What we know:
Blueprint: H1 9-45, H2 48-75, H3 78-102, H4 107-135, H5 141-157, H6 159-169, H7 172-197, H8 209-222, H9 224-252, H10 257-281, H11 287-304, H12 311-339, H13 345-378, H14 389-393, H15 399-421, H16 423-426, H17 434-444
Helix pairs in contact: 1-2, 1-4, 1-5, 1-6, 1-7, 2-4, 2-8, 2-13, 3-4, 3-7, 4-13, 5-10, 5-12, 8-13, 9-13, 9-15, 10-12, 11-12, 11-15, 13-15
Keywords: Cell membrane, Membrane, Transmembrane, Transmembrane helix, Transport
Protein name: MFS transporter
Transmembrane segments: 12-42, 48-68, 80-101, 107-123, 174-193, 226-248, 260-281, 288-305, 311-336, 348-371, 401-420
Amino acid sequence: MTGEKTDTPGDLYSKFLLIWFGQFISVIGTGLTIFSLGIYVLLQTGTASSFVFILMCVFLPPFLLKPYGGIMADRYDRRVMMVVGDLGASLGLLFIFFMMLKGDIELWHIYLGIAASSVFSAFQEPAYKALVTDLLPEEQYAKASGLVQLAGSAQYLISPFLAGILLTLMNIEYIFLIDISTLIIASFIVIWVRKTIGGIPVQRVEHDFMAELREGIREFSKNKGVVNLVLTITAVLFFVGLLQSLFIPMLLNLTTAKTVGISQSVCATGMLIGSLFIGLFGSKNKQVKILAVSLFIAGIFFANLGLSTNIVFITLAGFTFFATLPFINTSIEVLIRKNIDNSKQGRVWSIISMVTYLGSIIAFAVTGFLADSVFNPLLEPGGPLAETAGVVVGVGEGRGIALMFIISGLMISLISLVLWRNKKIRILEDGEDEGSIINLIEASDFV
């Protein structure tokens, strides 16, 4: 452990809820910025590529820097790292705000500001995740994970609606001020909690960053069950990345932009309800079984997204798919927390995030080519699959994307079966991996 929990479990959980609330409103603010900037850039350029580049500025810096953020989360007080991350993220937003006030904003200004904010999120997120282990006992991990996911879903459920209203009432630059305000509020809450319960001692070892990074990689790689679990989820996230990239283009071929927005929000409600359920009632034991079953069901719902052109059916499939995600995420987090030394969780979480991000980034990189050059031509009128797969999926604009969704969903269900059969993953249930047991045996030889 990095320090002693001197408060009662109830007191610590209450303080965790305060920190969670600050992060909740901060996530809403971030969602306001991303949604508003997406609309702004699309109106200015009329190209989807400019919007995709904003997403890359959001995702790429954390992907590259999270290992260093994780090292710092283990080296320093994790609450201090959260404050540095939140306040630092506001600097990039202030840059965009002032450039807009000057009236000579250019696209590269926006990309630079968003990238700068994302750099600081690479230091904030590992500290936030590891802080759960600092403050709470093991039996409250599942509830905490559910609440964290609940906050994350607000970016997709609350922010688009709220941003749409605010953009009719004020200029976009003031949206940035709202986001900055939420970051400051979140920081002050963390500072207050730190003051009331005191600092958490950190085990300081005189290593350089590369040495600590290698130590984190060793801690991650020695637990073969965790490695297998993370690689499996990385494969799943590749297919989820296809959904993130192609859901809107598919729907826009079927209905209006307004209806697409409503459909997205309803789908996000599924994640909200699933997270709320876990936050209120927790999650039972047998996390590997919950993970495998949830993945299998999620794959079926994913495949249903491509089976119909009826917007209500697609929205219902999306809702049920997103409702399964909190159960998947919670099971993964609990299994990892039980099997990784808390004093090294910051750097291990950052490595895990980097590995799993890779699945989404690869998906973003190949999605356009697969949709435009491979799958859509197959299901155009007269296309090679128009008279076979087209009978089920349909023929015309966007039906190649629908076929991609069906294949992706079936692949996720297949992955769930492979996961269930993996003995190294199943042994994580007991909080001990084969590698950990071997280490204990080896250590006993020197006693």
